[in-house]
Amino acid sequence: MAGFPTTRLRRLRYNSTLRDMLAGVELRREELIAPLFVREGKNQQRPIASMPGQNQFSVDTALETVKRWKNKGLRAVLLFGVVEKKDEFGSRAFSPDAPVQRLTAEIKAGLPEMLVIADTCLCEYTSHGHCGVVKPVGPDAMDVDNDETLALLARTAVSQARAGADLVAPSAMMDGQVGAIRQALDQAGLHRTGILSYAVKFASSLYGPFREAAESPPQFGDRRSYQMDYRSPAQALAEARADVEEGADILMVKPALTYLDVIAEIRRAFDLPLAAYHVSGEYAQIKAAAANGWLDEQAVVLETTSAVKRAGADLIITYFAENLAEWLG
Length: 329
Ligand code: PBG
Ligand code: ZN
Fold this sequence. Notes:
The strands form two sheets. This protein has an eight-stranded parallel beta barrel with strand order 1-4-5-8-9-10-11-12, surrounded by nine helices. It has a two-stranded antiparallel sheet with strand order 6-7. Helix content is about 40%, strand content about 20%. The protein has a single domain (about 25-329), classed as Alpha-Beta Barrel (TIM Barrel). By secondary structure, the protein is α/β, with parallel strands linked by helices. Ligand PBG binds near residues 131, 210 and 280.
């Protein structure tokens, strides 16, 4: 029987060429999706305090940024809108001249090969910061009304697709949102527009910096009546299955690092492409430690994103996309 000292596993690790030859997980710039926050106004670039290196842009400066990203080898952006006029229904989410729609049209006109993904949700547009329409559900309790929200999400997706979005990415976690959006897109003749579904999205404390960036924190309560409970992993399969049945083209798990088990499980259970979202809080943790000199940023980001791929993600949404494009290039 072979065993030590006949077997020596280190023989595969002595030579760096052999190590490279055996590297089974390789990140490619083509697999990265860069999130971008676009607001109203002109010539704006406002740093986001809790996400060092990230900014809110106006449409003009956003377009310059996307050009720079493209020159570095990035291929896809995920757009979030920041607006001044908010209302109960988040109606700015579906106005043709809102920041996301305008930037989408500009990117498609100037950089047509850049893939534009529009985040489809209402929380950045509602006065109360929830992802849908709020209704009383008791004497002094309010909650998001699922079915009334569907029509608004569908309208938002159609408006984003008309502006030129290649994919819409519903993130509100309403039951039936993928089906409602698919039906509305098809009725509008937009059958080429795909749906990247935030199928498995957990109610996570790692979204804090994003809510500062998108100016979208809920003004009361939290999102636990619609986003998933991290103690109940079995619901992940049910959520993904529902979205597959409703017509999702790509699935997503979010956040990434704290849910690698879920990424691996969804990878095995479904044959659709899978994205993972390395979220704002995950970004902030690395940035804070690196700023203190406690971690080597580049090494940690490469190890972290490799872990997300190894778990089974085909695509990675990450605020480190521009850095990764440089490091991988
Ligand atoms: C909004 C949305 C959120 C994120 C993406 N879309 C925040 C939330 O659900 O409150 C989080 C992304 C991140 O933290 O980077 N539906
Ligand atoms: Zn939302």
